[in-house]
Amino acid sequence: MDAPEQRAPEPTELARRLFGPRLPLTQRYADLLATTGISHGLVGPREAGRLWERHLVNCALMESLLPEGSEVIDIGSGAGLPGIVLALARPDLRVHLVEPLLRRTTWLEETVRQLGLEQVSVHRGRADEMELQAPVVTARAVASLDKLVAWSFPLLPVGGRLLALKGEAAQDELEQAGDLLRRRGVTDSRLHVLGEGEEGGPVRVVEILRPPDVSRAGAGRGSAGGRRSRRTR
Known about the structure:
Elements: H1 13-19, H2 23-34, H3 36-39, H4 51-60, E1 71-75, H5 83-89, E2 94-99, H6 102-115, E3 120-124, E4 136-140, H7 145-152, E5 161-166, H8 170-176, H9 178-183, E6 189-194, E7 203-209, E8 230-231
Parallel strand pairs: 1-2, 1-4, 2-3, 4-5
Antiparallel strand pairs: 3-8, 5-7, 6-7
């Protein structure tokens, strides 16, 4: 991956507060998003000027929902949003980036290497093929809640949490998924609204806890022989 030939915009004031001493490293990541991230098709060209408020701050606000030392699986990671952002904001986290496309995992692997993020690993494959487990699964702009539940529950222990970053219709989507969640035994789900009144906010995160009685049938995995995980870092 070539070094960036241009820089992302200057970080916002909220970004300075959220990333603190890790801001210079986060600026390097923003520069990569603004250059090779765009040339590799991971970020749209029109996003370059609003990377901080629309993407980096937007994802970093989720960190308040993660306990100290958490392990996180970020499914459909794409350009590392929110997985890499959370690792930058919170070096205490252990983060697994799960992405099925080779072009994207190659970019993620090189980005993680350039940033020296030792606590981040990259796994190529679909979420329902992974032999991973962690107490938190994150996702941003990946799929509807019914699909995210099917993909994430096999990756979570009982009581584990799916944190799905959603848009303005998050509450409606959660209500519409009510019947599906009840069929899966879910009794604990909620909407978090973060960063109200802040630049890049508000951020809406749907939290769904994995219940103890999830049926293996329809849990989202393929056949037993089809599960695999290619760890690329």
